[in-house]
Design goal:
Length: 212
């Protein structure tokens, strides 16, 4: 089933859009099914869960972090991930920089844009993002956003239009390595692809519903 879901998604996605398998809350055997079907990029949203799964999955998996990251949890996450997609505050960005410098690493990150109306959403405003310069040890690779949680695709479309416009205006500044627009989940990835997604984060459409 998982292999079939992956095949189906890959047949629909443009070849230049990277598929990130969101495996949070799913058990390792489910991840292994995706791995055996060829999937190598997985994303987790909880530090402890990520750190545990890293030890149980093959070493050539690329891990992304997509959840809210507290600065006291960095050491559970940063040693293992190739991309932190969910940098949502300057405080976090600076803490990642300090960890990177102390550990002789360069950490790739995406800045999370606050999209949609929900108060609970994390992330920067457009103005904040435009003012951010990458601190030492951090490479800002692009933007991540989650559309308003609604079935109204016109609202989703508006959210993705906003982040696409911001992404394009930063790209036009010629920032080095700024090449990733991570938008689109199970319910809205076709809309995201139409708005320039270079990366989609899909859980439910691969692994089925999560049990919370
Ligand atoms: C859980 C999650 C996803 C995947 O959601 P699905 O609807 O299951 O595809 C994508 N992005 C983020 C940031 C998430 O937390």
């Amino acid at each position: 089933m998982i292999a079939q879901n992956l095949r189906h998604l890959l047949s629909k996605l443009p070849p230049d859009v990277q598929l990130v398998a969101v495996s949070k809350f799913h058990p390792v055997p489910a991840l292994m099914e995706a791995y055996d079907a060829g999937q190598r990029v997985f994303a987790e949203s909880r530090p402890q869960e990520l750190a545990a799964k890293v030890t149980q999955m093959p070493p050539d998996v690329q891990w992304h972090f997509i959840g809210h990251l507290q600065t006291n949890k960095l050491k559970l996450v940063l040693p293992y991930v190739s991309l932190v997609q969910s940098v949502d505050s300057l405080h976090l960005l600076e803490a990642i920089s300090a960890w990177a410098v102390a550990n002789g690493r360069v950490i790739d990150v995406l800045l999370e844009l606050h999209l949609g109306a929900e108060e609970t959403k994390q992330g920067f405003t457009e103005e904040e993002i435009l003012a951010i310069l990458p601190p030492e040890g951090v490479r800002i690779r692009g933007l991540m956003g989650m559309a308003t949680n609604t079935d109204d695709m016109a609202v989703v479309e508006k959210d993705f239009e906003r982040i696409e416009a911001l992404y394009n205006s930063i790209k036009a500044l010629g920032r080095e390595g700024f090449d990733t627009l991570s938008i689109g989940m199970s319910g809205d990835w076709p809309v995201a692809v139409r708005h320039g997604a270079t990366m989609v984060r899909i859980g439910t459409d691969i692994f089925g519903p999560r049990e919370y």
